[in-house]
Amino acid sequence: MSETLTPVPDGSIVVGVDGSEGAALALEWAVAHAGLTNRPVTLVHGWDSIPSVWLDQAGVDHAALQAEIKAAAAEVVATAAARVAELDPEVEVVQVVRHEDARALLAGFSADAAVTVLGSRGRGPISALMLGSVSSAVARHGRGPVVVVRPGGPKPGEGAGVLVAVDGHDGTAPVVAAAFENASLRGMPLTVLHCTFDARVAVGGQVTAELRAQAEEEAELVIAEATSGLSEKYPDVKVTPRAVFGHVEQELLEAADGADLVVVGHRQRNPIASALLGSISRSFLEQARGAVMVVPED
């Protein structure tokens, strides 16, 4: 297959493929999700040109190298398509190979995708980083839900349930709605986590009965507001509210252990927060195990 301008179907499950182990995990998750939602899977691979000055210095034939890169890219996508057929032959597959930066390509496709799925590491020159450049960039700039599949988690559908954290600020409705929808799709329970931070506890103080009562009361109100109307829309989803004390990042990591899917929000309205992905979302993605869905907030 040569470079293709194949249109991407609206509402498809877009997955970035590059032949890496991380991409293989992402593909497995995407195919399982496609089976649950009856949506096609769009396999996407973007490739860049090597700067010509380097090629000139090395005496490399530009055209021949470009042809080799393009052929290798097509082979990566074809191999991924064959893997989809092995995992679920009923899933429709669309193959896309473009001479374009993978980060920009996938972020652009995310606007019309049901979800964009990525591995946490690829084959690029900075693949040794905990969170790869492509997954980090697409999670940061994606215009729809982005799932980053981290190693070490349960296989799709074999986790303990879906987890979402709420903090009471405006804009989290799409995040909580996505958590309910995915719990319903999987026939799994949903844990709604609210973390209370208290400086006295952070420096080693005790969680007194009074503090715990206050935290539980606050969590009850925040969770009730966040889930309002959704329990009625998804009556099949068993919801467990959970109030915890401490640092949000650490508490979320502990609660997420063994979860089938963790849903977090990304605040896009603040340009600084958008550039950093949000300290909690970014830090959590760096350390989480399994599938993490990053949903743009209103």
UniProtKB/TrEMBL annotation:
Transmembrane segments: none
One Pfam short name: Usp
Stretches assigned to the UspA domain: 13-150, 162-296
Coiled coil stretches, renumbered: none
Name used for this protein in its record: Unannotated protein
Organism whose genome encodes this protein: freshwater metagenome
Classification lineage: unclassified sequences, metagenomes, ecological metagenomes
